[in-house]
Amino acid sequence: AMKNPVPQAASLLLEKLLLLVHVRPLSAGSGGEPPPAPSYHDTSCFKRGDLLEVPRTLFIHFGIYLGENRVAHLMPDILPALTGDRRQIQQVVTNKRLILGVITKIASIRVDTVEDFAYGGSILVNHMDRLFEDQVLGSEEAARRAEKLVGATAYSLLWNNCEHFVTYCRYGAPVSFQTDKFCETVKMIIRDQRSVLASVLVGLASIVCLGLAPSTTLPTIFIPFFLWMAG
């Protein structure tokens, strides 16, 4: 057990802060639509059950390769709660759909093409195996676990994100290293009262560097104060 557990309210506030580093801001004039999906990925080098990683600027997206150019991955998405039209739902998830899915904690484990999954990024294959050593399950077992979980699921940046999904499928243990690392960084900052000002500056910098609306970002500046007071 942790020495100073973060109260539930503070944990929820931390999830809102994590949203800033998990969602790529839309480029001007994009209209919320995804960019054209390139088709340069050579799927012949992928094997069923492989864990695929797509490094982004601020986070990493994960999926399990199912074979035949199909990837299962967990994506926040509000649309399934608004319509039952499978054609609309199966379209590539836009940033607006993703953000609303995170806020409402609605997600689905869906199957997309490699190109749609990669969203224009490069792909690493089984890069996490080195962290789990002898815990790697069989490739077929990993793929079957992913297929069994396809469908609606609850979403949490802290407890149930795309990394939790793939580590459960391939290693049998749902963990998220990037979330743990970020949380530890935040804890280190808020333990030191002198770092609160630095946290505020980080929030202000995110407005400039990430292009986020001040109305969205400014509330998160005060999160370190709430967490520090609650701790």
Describe the 3D structure.
- With 231 residues, this protein is α+β, with helices and mostly antiparallel strands.
- It is 46% helix and 15% strand.
- It has helices spanning 8-22, 86-90, 95-104, 114-118, 129-132, 139-149, 162-171, 177-191, 196-210, 214-221, 223-230; strands at 51-55, 60-67, 70-76, 106-113, 124-125, 151-154.
- A hairpin with a 4-residue loop joins strand 1 and strand 2 (60-67).
- Helix 6 packs across helix 7 (162-171).
- The chain is globular, with a radius of gyration of 18 Å.
- The two termini are 15 Å apart.
- Mean pLDDT is 76; it is low at 1-6, 20-31 and 209-231.
- This is Lecithin retinol acyltransferase.
- The chain crosses the membrane at residues 196-229.
Short description:
Helix content is 46%, strand content 15%. The protein has 231 residues and is an alpha+beta fold. It is an enzyme of class 2 (transferase).
